[in-house]
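User: Mind token order:
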Amino acid sequence: MAGLDAERELAKARDCFDRRAWSEACRAFARAERERGLCARDLELWATAEYLTGRDAEYLKALDHAHAAYVDAGDCLRAARCAFWLGFRLLFRGETGQAGGWFGRAQRYLEREPRPNVEQGYLLVAIAEQHLDAGENETAYEMAHSAAEIGEGFSDADLIAMARHQQGRARLEQGSLGAGLALLDETMVLVVSSRLSPVVTGLMYCSVVQCCQRVFALGRAREWTDALATWCDDQPDMVAFSGICRVHRAEVLQLGGAWTQAVAQALRACERTEGLQQAAAFYQLGELYRLQGALADAEQSYREASQRGLDPQPGLALLRQAQGNTGAAVTAMRRLARVASGRWQRARLLPACVEIFLATGELDEARSACNELDELARDLGGDALRALAAQARGGVEISEGRPEAALASLRSACEVWQKIGAPYLVARARALIALANRALGDNEGAALELEAARAVFQELGAVSDLHLIDGGPQRTALNRAHRLTERELDVLRLVAAGMTNKTIAGKLFVSERTVDRHVSNIFTKLGVSSRAAATAYAFRHELCR
């Protein structure tokens, strides 16, 4: 009778696995193991179910037992496959010593096999991953290419997908955006075809979406996040990928202007993740709170991200700027500009550098960051990155007193944001266009642009941006802080218009020496050392009306 009950439990466990009822499968496999023990294949299924329910320690334990069972049965190839997955999971947990030990064990098993086998491809994937971590991208590409060929030869969809995805990552790191995205697209064709195992499906979804976000392939990020969300929603029992899926959903919802829903997704992600994934969830939550003007909540979220191992920048620096702590914001940006090394990492950082340096009148540093961003946009490509560079360039051109050039830059950025469907970024571009129009004397055009930007900010709840364009408490405090007299404001406006001291003297019917004194006082009060920096301050704080 006990044997019959055990058979029923095992049949139930396999059925639950097939139905993707992961928690129930885990319980049924555990009962069957207690009653009669499990074969190696059923131990592998049990391990998969434990992984998908987010029970990492139980996953590793069950997979270790499966590995031992295959060794006892003399099945070196399946033992090598288990050793690969044990090492791969440990590698992503940062336990490189243990990971290397399992990879070495897998290699020894394969050395006993005289015939070619698909497991050799999996071991190449492990080696390629280590080369990617070391920044050895061409070597990683070649290793992954060989792994993909083995996968093709054995018709192993999991291996093909993992290897092509590694090739795509390597090409992206090398700056080959088109080639890298094409390889990721090829990976996703396999993912959405339902030909992959559950674990590989989740890994590919999450990694590809993360890659697309990182290289500003925002359309693809949205497309694959929607597909990932559908896959996760069909498995409400799954924990392993649902948390990071919610982080990606929050990013996509933020881009599309659904901020309330984005906050809800980020909060759920904070509850359903741990470690660096939880840190990413808290960072995303901090970004949303900052944009909504909930500065204290943003600060706490950034701190939570930091405590879990993620540097909360550039969001924290932008928060300090919103709080009026410009010194901390500038210091953070200068530090990051020194230490950030990867090109995609710098591309993500530089727009914030430009924004903060312009806000504090550091025009030379803003211009330098903008020039680097322009160069990266030319080298790396992609509409979104080019739009970020154009928007940054427009801000610098306004501060340099070149509003006509700024209009061309900002309108090109605005077109991209409209095409992508990013209303907040459209509104920010239009607010800058309003400044350029005002500098050209087109007050009616400026008012129309501001009205459109304000409507979007109000709909989104972008409190900080509303304060900046409506003269709220933050901007009013900044404007009072300059302590300029009315005459000094007159002089500053003419300096910002590009006039020399001699021309200003004639315009105001005073001596050139008097203008020299006013300009000196302006520099002292604003804490700047050049006419360009004073002009930047004037435009950023809208003193040129």
Remarks:
- Residues 472-481 have pLDDT under 50 and may be disordered.
- The two ends are 90 Å apart (CA to CA).
- Residues 137-154 form the longest helix (18 residues).
- DSSP finds 30 helices and no strands in the chain.
